């Protein structure tokens, strides 16, 4: 099962998830990474769930049209929308800490 390492506000949260898991769906039903993940619509319209991928990006599918529209140039910096990702492999994400850097 994939391991998710999630950084936010100087804290590191680690959890195991089933394959083909969406982190925003899990947070919505109060499972890991709830309450640490910032999200809102869950449909790729608001970009509140944008995360910088620190590790595991090579296992992700290419960005879809929603990510391209919402993230634009930030895609090249390694950002993805958590609501559009279905986790199949270990991944490390950050919200907040490194986003301004």
TrEMBL record:
InterPro entries: 2Fe-2S_ferredoxin-like_sf (IPR036010), 2Fe-2S_ferredoxin-type (IPR001041), Beta-grasp_dom_sf (IPR012675)
Entry superkingdom: Bacteria
Domain 2Fe-2S ferredoxin-type: 35-85
Coiled-coil region list: none
Pfam families to which the protein is assigned, alphabetical: Fer2
CDD domains membership: fer2
Designated name of the protein: 2Fe-2S iron-sulfur cluster-binding protein
Lineage: Bacteria, Pseudomonadati, Pseudomonadota, Betaproteobacteria, Burkholderiales
């Amino acid at each position: 099962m994939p391991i998710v390492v999630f950084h936010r506000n100087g804290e590191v949260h680690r959890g195991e998830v089933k394959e083909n898991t969406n982190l925003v769906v899990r947070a919505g039903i109060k499972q890991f990474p709830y309450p640490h993940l910032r999200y809102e619509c869950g449909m790729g319209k608001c970009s509140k769930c944008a995360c910088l991928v620190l590790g595991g990006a090579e296992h992700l599918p290419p960005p879809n049209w929603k990510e391209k529209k919402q993230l634009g140039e930030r895609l090249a910096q390694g950002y993805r929308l958590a609501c559009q990702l279905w986790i199949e492999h270990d991944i490390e994400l950050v919200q907040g800490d490194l986003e301004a850097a």
